[in-house]
Amino acid sequence: MGTIKAALLGFGTVGQGVYEAVRSHRQQLKARLGAEVEIVAVLIKNPYKKRDVGRSVLVTTDFEEILAIPGLEVVFEAIVGEEPGFSYCMKAIEKGCHVITANKVMFAKYGEILLEHAKAHGVYVGYEATTAGGVPVIRTIAHQLQVNDIQRVQAILNGTSNFILTEMREKHLPFEEALAIAQQHGYAEADPGNDIEGKDAFCKLMILSRLVFGGQPDWKEVEVEGINALTLADVEKAEKKGLRYKHIADVYRYGDTLKASVKPVLVPPEHALYAIEGVNNAVTIYGSLIGKITLAGPGAGKFPTASAMIEDLAGGYRRIPQMNAI
Ligand SMILES: NC(=O)c1ccc[n+]([C@@H]2O[C@H](COP(=O)([O-])OP(=O)(O)OC[C@H]3O[C@@H](n4cnc5c(N)ncnc54)[C@H](OP(=O)(O)O)[C@@H]3O)[C@@H](O)[C@H]2O)c1
């Protein structure tokens, strides 16, 4: 059957994770797909950074060079922001490539368009890595909860915020000190705004909303509040009452509309998200038949995110007839 040629857009934390995971799990992928997966090209922004890739791998800043690769079948997208990720994914689909993305900012806004475009071109779009990192929530909902009427989804979708809240409570640290520790561990960016102001969790919630309810609430109507206004006194006062602050992303049906919020919420010990600690993410789904289930695990990081992307490949890949892979 030959080789499945794949390209990586972005070679940061996630891109490198996918590159290494494809190599370290070569046999498992081959057993599943019937062919070896080969990363043949990497798209980057800065041509002067040194990259740890094989000599046969094309490293380029020019996306057209990637599109021109004969027999390219899969594009992993792991760059940052709405553009150029969206345009690149659209073009890759038009070329007949399966697309697997980790880019939540892009997918929250353009997911519907990408999925429609992929359908029209007979290719697959995988987006497990956009939401809750390594926790297989997207494919669980898409494949295992197709008949259940899902009434509500409540989730912890930002590991950095959850880590900071855990540190504040366990070590009695003020917010700024807990944030500094998150940055030392590499959990929070130098500019942590997206995490601690709730924007990252908002994007992931919108992706879940489209999947579960077939649509998103009006973005302007969603209450989005980060954890940055919480003080150590707030956290300690809650602890004395046996409660914990959790940064909860919540979406549910309300009559004919969808309601959603992303904000710190006080939860009691019996709440499904009370015990989710550190950088973990968790998603609780309320279904008409299954009742309440919670999926939890690592919400970010090099290999958990790579895991989601190569599992997407394993689950969604099929050879497109006109493909001419060597
Ligand atoms: N990190 C995580 O744990 C995680 C988890 C889930 C999802 N994600 C998502 O995955 C994506 C990648 O995250 P990351 O943490 O890997 O980011 P990162 O470490 O900052 O890496 C970003 C990569 O994208 C490249 N890039 C940026 N803009 C580009 C452009 N215009 N054209 C070509 N390449 C460009 C960068 O090139 P240079 O190397 O030349 O700078 C870099 O290789 C993001 O959308 C993020 O939200 C991340």
UniProtKB/TrEMBL annotation:
Pathway where this protein functions: Amino-acid biosynthesis; L-threonine biosynthesis; L-threonine from L-aspartate: step 3/5; Amino-acid biosynthesis; L-methionine biosynthesis via de novo pathway; L-homoserine from L-aspartate: step 3/3
Phylogenetic lineage: Bacteria, Bacillati, Bacillota, Bacilli, Bacillales
Name listed for the protein in its UniProt record: Homoserine dehydrogenase
Domain Homoserine dehydrogenase catalytic: start-end pairs: 136-313
UniProt-listed Pfam families: Homoserine_dh, NAD_binding_3
PANTHER family listed in its UniProt record: HOMOSERINE DEHYDROGENASE (PTHR43331)
Similarity annotation: Belongs to the homoserine dehydrogenase family.
Spans traversing the lipid bilayer: none
